[in-house]
Amino acid sequence: MLNALAMVQDTNVNRDSVAVMAPYFPNGNDKNYGYPWTDGQKAGQGSTTNALVWSGSQWSAGANNQYPHNSRNTSSYYILDELVRYFDDKTLFPNMKQIVLAGHSLGGQMLQRYAAVGDQLETESPVVLWIANGDSWAWLSDYRPLNIPDCPTYNDYREGFAQYVEYGMTYGANLVAQGLDAIKANFDSKQIAWARALQDFGNHASSCAPETTGQDRNERFFFFMKWFQPSCPDPSGINCDTVDLVDAPHDNGQMFHSAAGLARLFTDNFYGDKSRAYDFGYPRKQQGDDPFPDPSLVNTAAASNYNTYAGGLTYQGCWTNQAPTTANALSTLLSDDASNTIETCTSGCVNAGYKVAGMSDATKCWCGNELSSASAILTVDMQCKSPCPGNTAEICGGISRLSIFSAGYPAFV
Q1: Are 314 and 308 within 8 A, CB to CB?
Q2: Rounded mean pLDDT of 22-27?
Q3: H helix intervals, 135-268
Q4: What number of other Cβ atoms are within 10 A of residue 22's Cβ?
Q5: DSSP states of 265-314
Q6: Is the pLDDT of residue 326 over 60?
Q7: Phi/psi class of residue 408: alpha, beta or left (left: φ > 0; alpha: ψ in -120 to 50)?
């Protein structure tokens, strides 16, 4: 973060005018490094100071602390509240213009859930949550975009808000008890600067629950954007969301150092004039991911396939194919061919009497007359990213993702 600060071109934005703090939430791996530990004590009493210590990664979801053993009622989200109040104290920081909480990866997960259940702090300074590249998000409804029959815990906290107290939570419990509408209203009241690394297709899900919201970090992000669209009703107000698409991998340094990162973390509203940069990253990836569009770039077209193939088939986007837990999106696997191309697959399906063709996993050609309504759900187009082996300039789906071709929008069964 300090290296990124040094890259800002405005010489007024520097270490003398920007305060940077990195909160430290220690766990059991930090014994004798982050806090003193004495072996041989009674179970759970080896930590003998007032240092706040959490169990595993539970700090990332607001759980109460594990140590000291005689005071286990401090949520990591309460810590965030106190830090915000500290920097909002005009007796300490009389010139404070904006407070940014920045979280990448697990830190991004922390802030997204904090946005959902975090208290209304009524600060004098605007507070922005910069949220980047989380592996999963707490979903703000009971609905999930992908099938859930094999995942009974799909809606438990941290992925949903069921079993909230059982997770080890006291912070936000009253709000969660009011239901999802109240949680979503609270979430919508927060100002969020979303950031997405477009080269990040990683997946570190430790349970089945994140899989119900997408195949990987990229798909989960765009599904969340689709169902809970950010908004910027007043660009000069204090609740203008932004969404920045950054050409980077899962790397916090590259995200911080990008033009988007420098703007959101340091220069937006630096002078208290409520100015902010337009959304970074064009062409956009789907409808609803551009809450503060750049008028000069908003019509930039994304690369797509506008060709017409055998039987009048045209490209209809990237779709899920969730077998083996459900039926395949298309009924017939016509071939699994190391020379697969769009042309050979579409013509093969049409010649076999089918109306819909789909390519997946680069080599597979699927055919059918309609898509399975249970397993075929439109995903962000860039999830289909496997080059066709017979023509690497073409795309033949992705892993469990289908490039679909039909004469018009495909039918469902």
Answers
A1: yes
A2: 96
A3: 173-177, 180-188, 217-227, 252-257, 259-262
A4: 8
A5: IIITTTTSS---PPPP-SS-SSTT--SS--TTTTTPPPP----EEGGGEE
A6: no
A7: left
* Mean local confidence (pLDDT), 202-211: 94
For the segment 116-129, the average pLDDT, to the nearest whole number, is: 97
Of all residues in the chain, the percent with pLDDT exceeding 90 is 86
Query: What number is the average pLDDT over the span 314-325?
Result: 79
Predicted confidence (pLDDT) at residue 78 exceeds the cutoff of 60: yes
Q: What would the two tokens of residue 371 be? A: 């898509």
Kindly give the interhelix angle for 106-117 and 76-87, rounded to the nearest 10 degrees. 80
Q: Where are the domains of the chain?
A: 2-267, 308-406
pLDDT at 376: 64
Q: What are 155-178's pLDDT values in tens digits?
A: 999 999 999 999 989 999 999 999
Is the bond leading into 324 cis (omega within 30 degrees of zero)?
yes
Q: DSSP label at 357? A: E
Whether 207 and 135 have beta carbons less than 8 Å apart is answered as: no
Task: Indicate the average pLDDT of the chain.
Answer: 94
**How far apart are the C-alpha atoms of 252 and 197, rounded to whole Å?**
10
* Among 85, 91, 150, 141, residue whose Cα is nearest residue 116: 141
Residue owning tokens 């999106």: 329
Q: How far apart are CA 354 and CA 350, in angstroms?
A: 5
**Strand, coil or helix: what is 185?**
helix
Q: Which CATH architecture has domain 2-267?
A: 3-Layer(aba) Sandwich (3.40)
Structure-token pair, residue 339: 């020379």
SS3 category, 363: coil
What would the two tokens of residue 236 be? 């000069």
What is d(CA 385, CA 380) in angstroms, rounded to the nearest whole number?
11
Q: Which residues contact 71 (CB under 8 A, 6 or more apart)?
A: 50, 65
> Coil, strand, or helix at residue 5?
helix
The letter for the amino acid at 52 is: L
- The pLDDT assigned to 300 comes to 83
Spell out the residues 6+ positions from residue 255 whose beta carbon is closer than 8 angstroms to its own.
Answer: 104, 132, 133, 195, 197, 246, 248, 261
- Contact of 367 with 335, CB cutoff 8 Å: no
- Which amino acid is residue 320, in one-letter code? T
